[in-house]
Amino acid sequence: MKRLWQAAIVPALGALALMSGSSTASGRTSPQGAAAARRLNVVFIVSDDERADGTAVMHNVQRLLAAHGVTFSNFDVTTSECGPSRASILTGEYSHHTGVLGNFGPHSYPAFDRDDLAVWLHRSGYETAIVGKYLNDYTEYGHNRIDPGWDDWQVMDSIPEEKYYDYKLDENGRIVHYGSKPADYSTTVLTKKALAFLRSARKPFFLYFAPVAPHLPAIPAPQDLGRLDDLPAFTSPAVREIDISDKPWSAYHSRELTREGAAYTDEIRRRQLETLLSVDQSVKQIVSTLAKRHLLSRTVIFYTSDNGFLWGEHRLGGKLWPYGPSTHVPLIVRTPWRQANGTVDREPVLNIDFASTISRLAGIAPGRPQDGQSFVPLLHGEKIRWRRDYLVEYLGRNKLRTGGPPPYVALRTPRYLYVDYHYHGWQELYNLHTDPWELQNLASDPADRQLMASLRRRMLRLYDAPPRRETT
Questions:
Q1: 9 in a domain, yes or no?
Q2: How many CB atoms lie within 10 A of CB 264?
Q3: Contact present, 267 and 231 (Cβ < 8 Å)
Q4: CATH number (domain holding residue 89)
Q5: What gap in Å lies between CA 395 and CA 405, rounded to an integer?
Q6: Structural domain contains residue 132
Q7: Which of 14, 42, 164, 232 is least enclosed, having the fewest CB within 10 Å?
Q8: Type and span of the H or E element at 85
Q9: Range list of β-strands (E), 144-216
Q10: 451 DSSP 8-state letter
Q11: Are 353 and 375 within 8 A, CB to CB?
């Protein structure tokens, strides 16, 4: 077990795949160049701290993306924190392989290898742009640096990175300050940058669009403030959980949610959802711009988030925890092919699958070994052999005294959630078939001792498994 936790701080190193199209001296397109011309454009939209149910208020996401593609109802992030999740998105690896274990300090942005999806796509002939939030602590450690692989670099350069007004953007190496006028609202500014890239980009292209909504402080756009005032109060069995004494961390969250606390949580929820209304308009503008350029038939659009957010479940708020509201986020993919329109896929897809999937759409192999795998066949409605279980992990600082968890590694299967807080000797076990709200911790039940041992062995095998090299 000691090796399990020591390995967490060692980032994996991968090799670059050098693949590009070319033309012959006579001006004819080579086979490689012809293949490049057929490759799909990719627009990847990633919100910030959006739960899976956030898209319920996003009518354009439903109308323009979901109705023309696939909604993945069992999509999870493998680390419910911004920086580690975004590193996993861009590399296809678990955080114990990327080395990005938290948002701040030496195991945040400085540990990021930057041999990532942008590099692989750029070297294969794609025009690439990043607009919005990159990795946390980029401003602290990478100020004024444009990372490899990006042709257009429009990155939030403020501390913290999640600002709606009074922030700075690193615009291709030039730091520009935006103030507090309505026109400076960050989603508005970032959308204009994204649209400018889409209007001018040559084919094929990759746009990584990362607005900061609905991250706290969750300030809605002026036109959206108050639009969801009539939203019903949020409730669920997990919010109404009376007894949390079976949770190993319960001593740190012993107070029940008061009426005032519930009202505050509902206010946070309302504001977060109102910030998503402007992102929903951004989606409409992106689709409209692609349509005007007649590119929708050659473009795949992803809509997702980096992690979820607890709204009082188990007396908790925020992210980091291994529970469903913290790890379960939206994934909707608009495809150019008709057979996907409006379908729902229930396979367990993960954030570590994006790098392989987008590489496959681009006709290239990932430039480094992968923990994830391509779900392109699922986008075509194919029945394929797929994973049944996977890791959820948080390997950053012990946050018990500030509201978060201590480090853990968890295994999620179709039926069970098993959590191992190694440093504290704590364990949790939930039967997701009979207890989908994760209310009854079965870890202390002697009848489940053999089951827990089996789940722990499987968890260790998955953790110790090296990433795999993929081909096109």
A1: no
A2: 14
A3: no
A4: 3.40.720.10
A5: 10
A6: yes
A7: 232
A8: helix 82-91
A9: 152-156, 167-171, 174-178, 205-210
A10: H
A11: yes
Q: How far is CA 353 from CA 48, 247, 345, 357, 375, in A?
A: 18, 31, 15, 6, 7
**CA separation for the pair 278, 220 (Å, rounded):** 8
Provide the residue range defining the domain that includes 359: 39-397
Q: Which two tokens stand for residue 30?
A: 């080579």
**How far is 72 from 81, CA to CA, in rounded Å?**
20
Has residue 341 been placed in a domain?
yes
Q: How far apart are CA 423 and CA 406, in angstroms?
A: 8
DSSP string, 388-427: S-EEEEE-S---GGGTSPPPEEEEE-SSEEEEEEGGGTEE
Q: First and final CA of the chain: distance in angstroms?
A: 35
C-alpha distances in Å from residue 245, one per residue of 236, 251, 254, 323, 429 = 19, 8, 8, 16, 14
Q: Are 393 and 371 in contact (CB under 8 A)?
A: no
Q: Is the pTM of this model over 0.90?
A: yes
Domain assignment present for 426: no
* Domain total in the chain: 1
Which H helix or E strand runs over 263?
Answer: helix 259-292
Print pLDDT tens along the chain (472 aa): 444 444 343 333 232 232 233 333 333 333 344 444 578 999 999 999 999 999 999 999 999 999 999 999 999 999 999 999 999 999 999 999 999 999 999 999 999 999 999 999 999 999 999 999 999 999 999 888 999 999 999 999 999 999 999 999 999 999 999 999 999 999 999 999 999 999 999 989 999 999 999 999 999 999 999 999 999 989 999 998 989 999 999 999 877 778 788 888 999 999 999 999 999 999 999 999 999 999 999 999 999 999 999 999 999 999 999 999 999 999 999 999 988 899 999 999 999 999 999 999 999 999 999 999 999 999 999 999 999 999 999 999 999 988 899 999 999 999 999 999 988 999 999 999 999 999 999 999 999 999 999 999 999 999 999 999 987 7
